[in-house]
Design brief:
Layout (H helix, E strand, L loop, with lengths): L2 H41 L3 E5 L5 E4 L1 H7 L3 H4 L4 H5 L7 H9 L8 E9 L5 E12 L5 E10 L1 H50 L6 H31 L8 E4 H19 L2 E5 L8 E4 L1 H18 L4 E9 L6 E10 L20 H4 L8 H11 L3 E7 L3 E12 L4 H6 L11 H20 L3 H13 L2 H9 L6 H11 L3 H11 L1
Parallel strand pairs: 7-9
Antiparallel strand pairs: 1-2, 1-5, 3-4, 4-5, 6-8, 8-12, 9-10, 10-12, 11-12
């Protein structure tokens, strides 16, 4: 034997030994793996079943035996649906159709949920994970199904679903009740407010009763505001609050807010002003003006209530995104009031909630911020708050507003911002006093019958009849024209000043 032959023989011998060693090692690992799988199969707290496309049971683990109260030796080879799942005879084909569908799915693992019946006819819902084994041609020859009993979970889910539905029904009933009762309350309340308003203007009312009548009127208005809040929250919860869009401009919005609040701020000695008015563009928007105004009225009303000195500022920031069809408009209202604790930032927007400091004021229902929050979301926006105790708060919300095409007519109709701050009214008040004096001189120049008739309409603030009566006055004067102008524009504050001067 040559040296070369001896080398190859030795090499071949070593190769066979290594191959045999590897084979033994692989076989040992395979045995260990099989033992692990067998341990899982024997000890798993899940049902494990092997079955074939003919629905014959090939094997079932001990947990499955205990669950179905069967023995593997008795059930193997039996029909899966009829003999193990105990499905009623009229439903067997339907169940097999459901199971057969998994063979047509491309996925290797299929999840299913269906009911099975125990020997005592108790129905249980099982969640199955199915592993399909296929041969070289792709034909399925075996299925490994692992099942877990989810009956209790399903029962709990059903109870929760019913509880949610009952809660929704109860909430809807509550909302309907609130809606009906608030409508019923508002009708007589309007009568009380109207009559008390007439009485406050009656010059023959004894002086000692005027305070009582004024208190009745103010409390009636406060109660009406609370009822309106309840009506709004019931509409929101019932899903009946919808958008009512109209054309408006930001200057028009500010003009309305200013006329509502300026004198109340003036009486309290607090400045109410608009910041950065130069950034407000003269353009018309198409949006729900009433809801935007309601949000701001709620926020400004809170600022007025909780601010005892300093100022309340409204900043309106118009952002123009790349999309030319709408603007993002941000409203920021900052005050120098009592502030809000940081830990209560999240809960102040909940219905009927007031901060501990706020509740000491004993006013309102605690619905204003909740209504504002939900209205902002209805308009597609978000609202947030920052605050520091003793220094003040800032509420801000941002909403998208559709831009209307700019036309010459639109531009001519846009309201010019007349007042930027309640401090400006101090100067206007002097001018109003002059106007009141002019009208008083005009009234004194008339005969007693005409004067009494006009003053009667002025006290009732019946502007339509006042204008008709003024048409019959032949006298031509600047004061008469001024009175007609104030009546047409329904300048309530001017007429209140005039009525007070006539007493």
């Amino acid at each position: 034997m040559t040296k070369k032959d001896r080398f190859f023989r030795k090499f071949y011998s070593l190769f066979r030994k290594k191959k045999k060693a590897k084979s033994v090692e692989l076989e040992q690992k395979l045995v260990e793996k099989e033992k692990q799988y067998q341990d899982i199969y024997e000890t798993a707290n899940s049902i494990i079943i092997k079955w074939n496309p003919e629905f014959s049971i090939l094997a079932i683990n001990p947990y499955g035996e205990e669950f179905f109260n069967v023995k593997s030796r008795d059930i193997e080879g039996k029909d899966l649906v009829r003999d193990l799942f105990n499905v009623h005879s009229e439903k067997i084909n339907a169940m097999k159709s459901v199971l057969w569908n998994i063979f047509h799915l491309p996925d290797q693992f299929i999840i299913q949920e269906y009911d099975v019946y125990l020997k005592n006819n108790e129905r249980r819902t099982i969640s199955w994970s199915n592993r399909i084994f296929r041969n070289e041609t792709g034909y399925p020859y075996e299925v490994l199904s692992i099942g877990n009993d989810i009956t209790n979970r399903k029962v709990a889910e059903e109870k929760l679903k019913r509880a949610v539905e009952e809660a929704k029904a109860a909430n809807k009933s509550k909302s309907i009740f609130f809606s009906k009762i608030t409508h019923e309350l508002r009708t007589p309340l309007h009568a009380v407010i109207g009559l008390s308003q007439i009485l406050t203007k009656d010059q023959e009312l004894p002086q000692h009763l005027k305070g009582y009548v004024d208190s009745l009127h103010q409390n009636g208005l406060h109660l009406l505001s609370m009822i309106n809040d309840l009506l709004d929250i019931s509409k929101i919860e019932a899903g009946k609050m919808t958008e009512n869009k109209e054309r408006f401009s930001i200057p028009q919005l500010w003009d309305t807010l200013f006329s509502l609040f300026a004198y109340r701020f003036l009486e309290k000695g607090i400045t109410f002003r608009l910041k950065n008015q130069e950034n407000i563009h003269n353009k018309f928007y198409f949006g729900d003006l009433q809801k935007i105004r309601q949000i701001l009225v709620n926020l400004i009303g809170n600022a007025l209530k909780f601010t005892n000195s300093g100022q309340v500022c409204l900043d309106i920031i118009i952002k123009e995104p790349n999309n030319k069809s709408f603007d993002l408009v941000e409203f920021k209202l900052a005050d120098t009031g009592i502030g809000i604790p940081s830990e209560q930032f999240e809960i102040i927007f909940e219905a009927f909630h007031q901060t501990e400091i706020g509740s000491s004021y004993q006013e309102g229902t605690g619905l204003g911020l909740s209504i504002s929050h939900q209205l902002v979301e209805l308009l597609g926006g978000t609202i947030s708050v920052t605050s520091e105790l003793g220094k003040g708060s800032e509420f801000s919300f941002e909403i998208p507003l559709t831009i209307l095409d700019s036309t010459e007519e639109n531009q001519n109709q846009i309201t010019k911002i007349k007042f930027l701050s309640s401090d400006d009214l101090k100067l206007e008040k002097i001018e109003e006093i002059r106007e009141v004096d002019q009208v008083k001189v005009f009234l004194d120049s008339l005969n007693e019958l005409t004067k009494k008739e006009l003053i009667g309409f002025i006290r009732l603030q019946d502007f339509q009849r006042l204008l008709e009566a003024l048409k019959n006055v032949k006298q031509i004067s600047q004061a008469k024209n001024l009175l007609e102008e104030k009546a047409r524009e329904r300048k309530f504050k001017f007429f209140i000043e005039l009525i007070q001067s006539l007493n």
